[in-house]
Amino acid sequence: MSYFFYILHSESFEKYYIGHTSNIDDRIRKHNTNHNGFTGGKNDWILVYSEVFETKTEAYARERQVKNWKSKSKITQLINFKV
Prior knowledge:
The termini are far apart. The protein has one domain: GIY-YIG endonuclease, CATH 3.40.1440. The longest helix has 14 residues, at 56-69. It has helices spanning 24-31, 56-69, 72-80, and strands at 3-10, 15-21, 45-53. It contains three helices and three strands; from the N terminus they run ββαβαα. Strand 1 (3-10) and strand 2 (15-21) form a beta hairpin. It has 83 residues and is α+β, with helices and mostly antiparallel strands.
């Protein structure tokens, strides 16, 4: 099983959402439903970046690392980085 670190973006909300999951397609669908929570109420969340990890612990560690940046510009640089 693979685990994903991911970044979603909402054009209408002009915000990023950072998370981790084992099923990225299902998770994006859930973010785009009407629910209570940060992503609720907006249904235009799109996947703009992801990384694959072998363990949930690694994916969660990457999520914490990026969230700790607290910098929209650093997140944007990560998304736009091309190898």
